[in-house]
Structures are given as structure tokens and as C-alpha cells.
Design goal:
alpha/beta; 7-stranded parallel β-sheet; beta-galactosidase activity; zinc
Length: 694
């Protein structure tokens, strides 16, 4: 060991000791390093702590040094291969794997499992030069060379052919490698921009032909009689402008097309896995809500993923939003969530002591199993040269290595205590990809923004908020894709697009005895994006027992009285309900007509409840809480603001998401299994503190 390695080892031991506390001996450290040793990461009772690792940035000596640090810290998993296509295939058809073989051998010897990423994004420079159809063409017709990551047209046939070939070669080589336990595809897929080449237009036309069949059907769906825009033959179809302007119907189909392209690419790669490496689960680092394009993950997740996985970079100011995002990526999976990238430092952010550990426990309570720090080495070049990982730029371990080592030690203990969590939520919220896009149109002459003034994402989170506060798990799903009969309550906040499958799912669920709460802005347009020519809510007026066509906006936040309490909302939008079979539970207090605010209709064996305003926690909180006892929805532990908690195997886990101390009250005397300290009725949690009480 040279002097630099000895110095690094001393720094690492200090960092780990600081994180794990006094008295953690070398013998104990060796025990904490023990690998999980289970070939199948889907097995019960396993938690993985590790990192994302880009060996292409490191020399062989540095790689050996890095792996020694990972082993000593007790890391059990790494993710590798991503962002490295041209390292595996420097020229078309010339594959080089020996360098990666050697690293896998070292990882296996260190007891570290590997997620193998098929690096389909970004595509190499040689591919762009030889196959210019992979270049992005912007909506102005300008061809763009790959100046930044993910500027790749993944709909191009040559791209699709070559990325599949890459997957076949890599999986054939590594399907039975003892280090490899899972496979992922196309890092952050969904983030590439839309492209407007002639090839893209031809593929879009082919997609429209398959969807609509005839020009007449297309004209009807797109309402082309408006503004003299009828289409006489397919040659007249142009790609809609994703950056505007353009009508809603075409913009919606544009996003559907690119979503289908992305899903087809993922499905194609998963087809390779099924044939070549069927024993490896698919666990891709997805970005379905990427602002550039995204894709309809909630209506397709089971076609290409075994585990819901994402890059987890939560905002400490918005733990509710972080919880919503995790539950969205979990979708309808019965398997835990994997954080293929997990917050450590970040871009321009060196890190905050205790913060990553707090978010890891937060993740545990939201069904997470895997926590891979992004990234191991602080980046020295490229767009992320000011991104700070676990090792400093000179290769020395930062205090963050010690914090992740502490997580690895604690999570090894928690594996025997009901983690990763396996239960399923009692409540579900509908999240619609199509509503998200159609209510957020690109710039241009469009009345949508004048009508839909309350942000869709905010309304989803407003519906989520009461349950988050009450420490109740909530599934975030597309109810046209995932069965809902087992949920005790289903919420539809501002479900603006009401297609036939969604309406059918709601109708059947309520008829069979389910309870649904739907809010204003819902069921206004059909699957083409056009307003219903029938009474609103479209396709569901009889289920809810009312008509809701007129709407107005109050200059002041609207009020209503519910169960003897005056409630004040945060939005002025409200709808005037005309009940038929529905009964009125509450009326607005400061609107001219004092019209019904909340109605309930018995339909079949179930109940359909309508809130005649935008989704807002001030109204939904009291409403859903009034249903808990009737629906046997179990509340979680009572906690002060900023603290979340769950009961897992008769132990209560508390997580303080704030950076200030908080006191939690509970009944009786309990012991914290992490510290072995007893607490009698109260628990003082430091900023970012956690406790597991039994």
C-alpha cells in the first residue's frame, strides 16, 4: 500500500467511525461488510446500499482502490454500464468487453452485486455520423448534432436495430455472470427531445393510420373542420409542434406517439432479456415525467419493468412531493422500489450530513429496497464536473462514505424487521399522463390555459396530502391499467380526460361496492381531447347522479360548511352541480347560488362522491377523513408536521424530514433498536433524525 492509499484508508476509517459511532471495531466492520449472498435480489428480507459507478473515468489502479473503499464501507450493490455505449462498441460491430469483465470479477470478489445497464442512451458519435437519422431535427427543421446527452432520435430504425444488437451482445455475455443480478435499459429514457425529421413524420403517419384507420376518422378526432384544416390524404399530415402552437387534439396525439415510441424501445430491449437472460429482473432508471417528452409509464410499466426504479433527488422543502413521486414509480408493482440513483451530493451541492440517511429511511417507509448513491466519484469533466459524489475530486473518501456505511450497517439489521415493505396501500389516486399533457399545452392561441388555471400536478398532490399527513400509504396508478377492486377508496383529482377504459373501471368499481371521490375539472373531454357532447361528467353522469356543466370563478377563495365546520379553500374555481339521484353533503358558502359543493350518489353497491371545485387539501382532508371509519381505512401514527411514520412488524419508524429538532409523543415506554435507548412517552428527534421504536 503506497502513502496515498494509506492516507485514504485512514480517512475512510475515520469517516466510517464518525458515522457509525464510537466502539465500532475492526471485527464489527468486517461483519458489516458481509455481502447479502443471495443470487436473486427479489428475495424477501434484503436491502441494498451502494453506488453508481462509472469505471470509464478511472484507471485500473483507481478502480481497485475504489472497490476496496466500497467493500470496507459494506456496500452490497453497484450500478454500472450506463452512459458507456462507445466503451463497449467503439466502432460499429466491434465489441470490447474484456475491460468490463475484469471489473465484474473484482466486484464479485468483493461481494458486491451489479446492476448491468444496457447503455442505449446516449448513442455514440460514430452512430450519428454513419446514420444521420438518429440526429434530432427541431421543429424549425434544423438538424442538431449530438451536442449534449440524450439528443438521440430513438424512433430511428437504425438506432433501434443497433441498440437491440448491443443488448443481445451484452446480455449473452453477462446473463450468467455471478456478479450480475439485474439489468436496466437506456438511462433516464423519456428525456430525449422530440424530433421532426421526414422519417419521424412518416412514422407518425403510420402510427395515425394504425390508430384511426381512415382519413375520415382522423378528421373527426382532430376536429379539422375548425379553421379550415381538413385533411384530404395522408400526405397532408404534418407533425404537430411540441413547442407550439397547435390545437389540443394534435398535441395529445403527438405525445401519445412519442410515448409509444419509448415504450416500444423499452419493450424491445426487454424482449431480448426474456430470451437471453430470463433470470435477471428488469430494473431500469426511468424518467417518465421528463419535461422534454416523457412517456405513459403508468399505463405500460408491466411491459418492461420488474421493479419500479428511478433517480431519487428529493427536495427537502417538499417531502410530500417526494412521497408522491416514489409511489408513482412504484405504480402497480408488487415488488419494492429501487433508487438506481440516490441523493448523496449533487450538482453544485456537496451534501449535508444526515440528509441522505434521512431520505433513505423515508424511502424505506415508501417501499424502497435499493439505495445507490449518485455518484461514487465526483465528476472532473463534462456537464457534471461540479457534481459532488462520495469521493472528492482527488479520490479521497468524504464523510459521505461514512454516512452510507452507516446506512449499510443499519439496513443489514433492518432486513430482519420487515423490510423491504411488502404490503399494498388501502387508497389509490388516478394519475393521467394524457391529462397532464393536454392541460399544459405549448405556447400559442389556446383557451386551455384560460380554463384549466389550477396546475394538474398540484391537484394530484393536494389529493395526496391528507393521507401523507395521516401516515397512510397511497398508490399512484392509472386505473384503466391496474385493477382497483382491492382498494378501499379511489380518488380522481382533476381527471380531465375521461376515456372509455377509465370510465369503465370507475363504473364497475362503484357498482361492485367501491367508493370514489372525483373533483372538479374531471371528465370534460374524451380520448381525442374534445369536450363531450353529453352531460358532464362525461360517461359518468349517471354514476355520480348529477350534471355539472356551468362553472364560475370566485374572486375570493371559496368556502363550504362540512360536518359542522366552515372550510376555506385555496382556489376560486367551482362548478354548479345539478343533482338528479345524488344527495347533497355540503354547499358553497360564499357563491351567489350557494350551490352544492359535495354530493354523494349510490350506484350499484357503492358510492360516488363529487367535489365541485379544484382538488384542494382544505376540502379533501375533512372529506376523506369522514370516510375512514366507514371504509375501515387505518390511520398511521400521529406525528407533528415534518415527521412521517409507519408501523412495520409492530415497530414504529419515525423520520424527521426537517433540519430542526422535533418531539414526538406516543403511548407507553419503547426502545429505539438503532441506539438501544429507552423512551418513555416522548421521543426527541434531531434534525434529519430517525428512530425505530419497539
Amino acid at each position: 500500500m503506497n502513502s496515498k492509499e494509506r492516507a485514504t484508508a485512514r480517512v475512510l476509517k475515520v469517516a466510517i467511525a464518525l458515522a457509525l459511532g464510537a466502539g465500532f471495531t475492526a471485527t464489527q466492520l468486517a461483519q458489516a461488510q458481509s455481502p447479502v449472498g443471495h443470487a436473486n435480489p427479489a428475495g424477501e428480507g434484503q436491502l441494498f446500499v451502494g453506488t453508481c459507478y462509472q469505471p470509464i473515468d478511472r484507471s485500473p489502479a483507481q478502480i481497485r482502490h475504489d472497490i476496496a473503499i466500497m467493500k470496507q464501507a459494506g456496500f452490497t450493490m453497484v450500478r454500472m454500464g450506463d452512459l458507456s455505449w462507445d466503451s463497449f462498441e467503439p466502432r460499429e460491430g466491434q465489441f470490447e468487453f474484456a475491460w468490463f469483465d475484469a471489473i465484474l470479477t473484482q466486484m464479485h470478489a468483493a461481494g458486491i452485486k451489479v446492476i448491468l445497464d444496457i447503455p442505449g442512451l446516449p448513442a455514440p458519435v460514430w452512430l450519428h455520423q454513419k446514420y444521420p437519422g438518429v440526429d434530432i431535427v427541431n421543429q424549425d427543421g434544423v438538424r442538431l448534432h449530438p451536442a449534449t446527452r440524450y439528443w438521440d432520435d430513438i424512433s430511428d430504425p437504425d438506432y433501434r436495430r443497433l441498440v437491440r444488437q448491443l443488448a443481445e451482445k451484452m446480455l449473452a455475455r453477462y446473463a450468467h455472470n455471478p456478479a450480475v443480478v439485474a439489468v436496466g435499459y437506456d438511462n433516464e429514457v423519456g428525456s430525449s427531445p422530440m424530433s421532426y425529421s421526414e422519417g419521424d413524420r412518416a412514422r407518425f403517419v403510420a402510427w395515425l393510420k394504425q390508430r384511426y384507420g381512415t382519413i375520415a376518422a382522423l378528421n373527426k378526432a382532430w376536429a379539422t373542420q375548425r379553421w379550415s384544416r381538413r385533411i384530404n390524404d395522408w400526405s397532408q399530415v404534418e407533425l404537430p409542434y411540441g413547442e407550439g402552437p397547435g390545437p389540443n387534439e394534435r398535441n395529445l396525439d403527438l405525445h401519445r406517439f412519442w410515448s409509444d415510441v419509448t415504450i416500444a424501445d423499452l419493450s424491445d430491449l426487454d424482449d431480448v432479456r426474456k430470451h437471453v437472460a430470463p433470470d435477471l429482473p428488469a430494473v431500469s432508471n426511468l424518467w417518465p415525467d421528463a419535461p422534454a417528452k416523457g412517456f405513459d409509464y403508468l399505463r405500460s410499466w408491466n411491459r418492461y419493468s420488474t421493479y419500479g426504479a428511478e433517480g431519487f433527488y428529493p427536495d427537502t422543502r417538499d417531502p410530500l412531493g417526494a412521497a408522491f413521486d416514489v409511489m408513482m414509480i412504484k405504480a402497480g408493482h408488487r415488488t419494492p422500489v429501487w433508487f438506481n440513483e440516490f441523493t448523496a451530493g449533487g450538482g453544485g451541492d456537496y451534501g449535508v450530513p444526515g440528509r441522505s440517511r434521512m431520505w433513505a429511511y423515508f424511502g424505506l417507509l415508501h417501499y424502497a429496497q435499493t439505495f445507490l448513491a449518485w455518484t461514487f466519484n465526483s465528476h472532473i469533466g463534462g456537464e457534471e464536473q461540479s457534481l459532488f459524489g462520495l469521493l472528492d475530486h482527488d479520490g479521497r473518501p468524504s464523510w459521505k462514505v461514512g454516512e452510507f456505511a452507516r446506512m449499510a450497517k443499519e439496513f443489514k439489521q433492518l432486513q430482519t424487521m420487515g423490510f423491504p415493505r411488502r404490503g399494498q396501500p388501502q387508497v389509490a389516486i388516478e394519475d393521467s399522463y394524457e391529462t397532464a399533457w393536454i392541460t399544459n399545452p405549448p405556447p400559442g392561441p389556446n383557451t386551455m390555459r384560460q380554463y384549466f388555471t389550477d396546475n394538474y400536478s398540484d391537484q394530484l398532490k393536494a389529493a395526496f396530502q391528507p393521507f401523507f399527513k395521516d401516515n397512510i400509504d397511497v398508490a399512484v396508478i392509472d386505473i384503466a391499467h391496474d385493477p382497483i377492486d382491492n382498494y378501499k377508496l379511489v380518488l380522481l383529482p382533476a381527471t380531465y380526460v375521461m376515456d372509455e377504459p377509465t370510465a369503465k373501471a370507475i363504473r364497475q368499481y362503484v357498482a361492485r361496492g367501491g367508493t370514489v371521490v372525483m373533483t372538479g375539472y374531471s371528465a370534460k373531454v374524451d380520448e381525442t381531447g374534445k369536450w363531450f357532447e353529453t352531460p358532464l361528467p362525461g360517461r359518468l353522469a349517471d354514476v355520480f347522479g348529477l350534471r355539472t356543466d356551468p362553472f364560475y370563478r370566485s374572486k375570493q377563495p371559496i368556502t363550504l360548511r362540512f360536518e359542522g365546520k366552515e372550510l376555506t379553500g385555496s382556489a376560486g374555481y367551482y362548478e354548479v352541480l345539478e343533482p338528479s339521484t345524488a344527495s347533497v353533503l355540503a354547499s358553497f358558502g360564499n357563491t351567489p347560488q350557494k350551490s352544492p359543493a359535495i354530493t354523494l350518489n349510490h350506484f350499484g353497491k357503492g358510492e360516488a362522491i363529487y367535489l365541485a371545485t379544484a382538488s384542494q387539501a382544505a376540502f379533501l382532508g375533512p372529506l376523506v377523513r369522514s370516510l375512514y371509519a366507514k371504509l375501515a381505512i387505518e390511520r398511521g401514527p400521529v406525528t407533528p408536521d415534518g415527521v412521517i411514520a409507519r408501523v412495520v412488524d409492530d415497530r414504529t419508524v419515525y423520520v424527521n424530514t426537517t433540519d430542526v429538532p422535533v418531539t414526538v409523543s406516543f403511548d407507553g415506554r419503547k426502545r429505539d433498536v438503532l441506539t438501544d435507548r429507552a423512551h418513555n412517552g416522548t421521543l426527541d428527534l434531531p434534525g434529519y433524525g430517525v428512530a425505530v421504536l419497539q
